Amino acid sequence: MTKHSDLMKKICLIAFLTGLIAITTYAQNRCSYVVPRQADNWLFYFNAGIRFTDAGVSNNNLPAGIQNLAAGVGCSALSDSSGNLLLYSSGNKIFNSAHTTINAGNLKGDPGSPQSSLIIQNPVSSQMLYVFTTGRMGTSNGLNYSRVDMTARAGNGDVMEVDVPMLSSAIPMLCGVKNSDGTGYWVMTHDADNNDFYAYEVNASGVNTNPVKSSMGQSISSDAAAREYLGTMKFSPKGDKIAIASFGQAMIHVFSFDNATGKVSNPSTINVTVPSSLFGPFWIEFSPDGNKLYATVVARQNNGKQNVLYQYDLLNGALETQLNPTPAFSDDVVGLQLGRDGKIYVLRQNKMVLGAIENPNRPGIACNYDESFFGLDGALGFTGLPNFVSSFLDIPPVNYDTKCEGDGTIFTLLNTSNTISVDWDFGDPDSPDNIVTGDFNPTHVFSKPGDYTVTWTEHTATGSYTFSTTLTINPLPIPAFDLTLQNDTAYIVDGSSITLYANENMYSYFWQDASTNISYTATEGGVYTVRVEDWNCCQQMDTLYVLELNIKVPSAFSPDGNGLNEEFRALSNIGDQITPIAEESMTDFSFSVFNNWGQMLWETNDVHRGWNGKVGSAPAAAGLYYWHIKFNVPGNTMNNGMMSIHGTVMLFR
Fold this sequence. Notes:
disordered N terminus, five-stranded antiparallel sheet, single chain, five-stranded mixed sheet, mainly beta
């Protein structure tokens, strides 16, 4: 077997193995969706807690003897991107993950406010946190923030700025959302005795105390008897809506929100059905898709009796559906909070159990409210659940990985509660596998790159519900050597080197020797491979074989018309094969023949031409002649300039 054939077999093997490496790395990569973990830890009154992980939800009550959340209504918490607790707050106190108070004295926040605090991390300096607080109505405490440096006190954290004033007349409502490009946050509150929203931006520079003001909707009175300022404010997870529940008005006000500018617009009002004038809407939460709004109607006495849980279908005229009709359900519903498992958790006052709206994107009672969903391991819940930036709960209902041409894209439903089976339409009519039935986690290879609308239908015991999402399948990078070399082949001569270049503007490069530069310098023949990965995490492997080029020139020829050895020409020797010279292997080629006196008799720049033994049209005499060949090899760096070889040839007649 020839060396050239051996080389080709090696190429095939390396290509196969490298292809396997590329396939296995597609399963999880830097472009895979990462679930936000900042809302993983919930700590709330009375010293209760739960924690979310990829395995589900578990108990996480405050340790025995710790009374940080022994009395109050509103609180907040924040975890890092790995789900480790950083801080939690009652509004007047800030606690670290060791449950130690890190502020001296009391902050101006009121633990009795339903949204007493909100914690936001600096988007660049992760150890710098801001605790926003709302004060009690009837005081001038209003909205303030305190800055915490988590590197202080040997990593236990310390408050570096305390109660920086923002809006002294703010009502005790407070919510947050990411801005449109993900580089910061908006913190929203509402002023008293007018219809003014105030949006404050938090970015890498810190808190901008110059707000974006929007005068929109109805005025909210500070009159204690009217109780209009009692309630909560929430952003939708996607940040395109904001809602306010006003107890005293018996209304929920819903607005559009522009998370690029911080402006509020497009007001609408929901008139809430209340048992009597002693009741009003208080706690609210959006469904994950933002198309449903949930609210609890509570009693003025805050005794957890005759409370009502409603769903409002915002795509159907804010259609109101009661989810806890008595006597089938209890009437002790209070705080609401979306979890990262796609369920909305419902606090039941003075009970050791949380309820849950298991399928909040579904309409009416199909949302499946379970009032005894999760036990609190002996702890009592009071009224409010922790306040979080709503964007941390913007988790898609279906995750898909990967997103590159030719890959199997894996689909995974976030929330499979109360679902018997799932049918899929991948929006890919060119594929014979466009429709899949009965599979919770299908894999689909899309027929070509492009944008697709994927639809899935969840079948339950009581009906079927259809949802959709859009995704982009990205093309693979162009094979690295297709841009610069013909037939994935390069040539090298002894004493030179050739620099091989992969595609520009790739995210990463991986050569056959594990080097990671955009280029590789070869000094000998062999098989060279590179795997490139673009910024969409799509990978392409390309293989190049570098052939060692040796010029072979015969020592004699006989142009006598018998069809054998008629021309004197240069040939290439690759391995043990003598072949015509490949045009792409040389540039600046010159082949000359001289007589004994140094006179040039013949010359060509064509690698395929040979000397026919004539000078002009006359046959040259038999005898010894001299030849000279000069050339460059594309990409080669020569140690001694242009390649030059010479010798003699015997012409026989």
